[in-house]
Amino acid sequence: MRELALNILDIAENSVKAGATLVCISVRAERGLLTIEIADDGCGMDAEFLKRVTDPFTTTRTTRKVGMGIPLFKMAAEMAGGTFRIESEKGKGTTVRATFELDHIDRAPLGDLADTVVTLIGGGCKSDFRFEIGTEKGCFEFDTRELKAELDGVDISEPDVLVFVRDMIKENLMDIGGERL
Amino acid sequence: MKSIADIKAIRDKMKGQINLRDNKDAEQEIRIVVGMATCGISAGARPVFNAFVDDVASRQLRNVKVTRTGCMGMCALEPIVEVHIPGEDPVTYVHVDPDKVRKIVANHIVNGNVCTEYLIGEERK
């Protein structure tokens, strides 16, 4: 993974597969620390599986025996002087939280968050998403429930809607200096 | 600066077009499915998905849906894209990138000619 936005896409995709109705994604860059949190209300994991979940040879898939998403995200955080934490409760949901030293030479760039958002909300996905991106210059929030209310029955995954959302996020990120993270 | 409230103009335009569609149109819907598991994402599936969204929007292709799915089981061939056209066999493209997306949309989706050079069978020759 060359960008942290790709890790976010990968982890949030797991939330969608876990049957989450709402996935909250928060990216904050403050006081020299970048914090990324992905919280969902999906099916969660039991304590025994949670203990093994950062092991690349742990997966829920039956077709193969490797699951790289969580281990890669953990590695990206730890090699940038950060921390990684995952909390989960069966039936309630999962929260993944990673921190990164903003100025660490090995920190991957945040990358194209707008493309990640469009990929997540498009593609006929049933889950709702709440995005919160904060820097020292300001904060930008985006909630697909608000967008769906404005769309009044028009499908959120219509390409025209997705192009609008991408432009809107790019403009707002630029305003708070989020595109340089 | 754009905000969610600015979506109204697009919504009104889309609503007009959706009202014109009938059930027959829905059955004729073309689906483009992009593999979006860890393997696909790390190989470049996100720019591929977004390139399809851009091309479908700019060409105003109303009967085309871009969707995503999990691992298709051939990680070494990612990014993988399946094109489902009603009444035809599904077509699987491998090692797709945004340049190939433009050719797939122009040649296959719009003009009905499969881009044989990007097919999974060609890759294995």
Task: Please outline what is shown here.
The complex is a heterodimer of chains A (181) and B (125). Chain A is α+β, with helices and mostly antiparallel strands. Chain A has helices at 4-17, 47-52, 69-78, 113-121, 144-151, 159-175, and strands at residues 22-30, 33-40, 84-89, 93-101, 128-135, 138-143.
Question: What does this entry look like structurally?
Answer:
The complex is a heterodimer of chains A (181) and B (125). Chain A is α+β, with helices and mostly antiparallel strands and 181 residues long. Chain A has one domain (4-180): Heat Shock Protein 90 (2-Layer Sandwich), CATH 3.30.565. Chain A is built from 6 helices and 6 strands, in the order αββααββαββαα. Chain A has helices at 4-17, 47-52, 69-78, 113-121, 144-151, 159-175, and strands spanning 22-30, 33-40, 84-89, 93-101, 128-135, 138-143. Chain A has a 6-stranded mixed β-sheet. The mean pLDDT of chain A is 91. Chain B is of the alpha+beta class. Chain B has 6 helices and 4 strands, in the order ααβααβββαα. In chain B, a hairpin with a 6-residue loop joins strand 3 (81-84) and strand 4. In chain B, helix 4 crosses helix 5. The longest helix of chain B is centred in the middle third of the chain and has 14 residues, at 45-58. The A-B interface holds A 1, 6, 9-10, 13, 17, 61, 63-64, 67-69, 72, 112, 115-116, 118-119, 122-125, 142, 146-147, 150-154, 157-164, 166-168, 171-172, 175 and B 1-8, 10-11, 13-15, 18, 34, 36-39, 41-42, 46-47, 49-50, 53-54, 56-57, 61, 64-68, 70-71, 73.
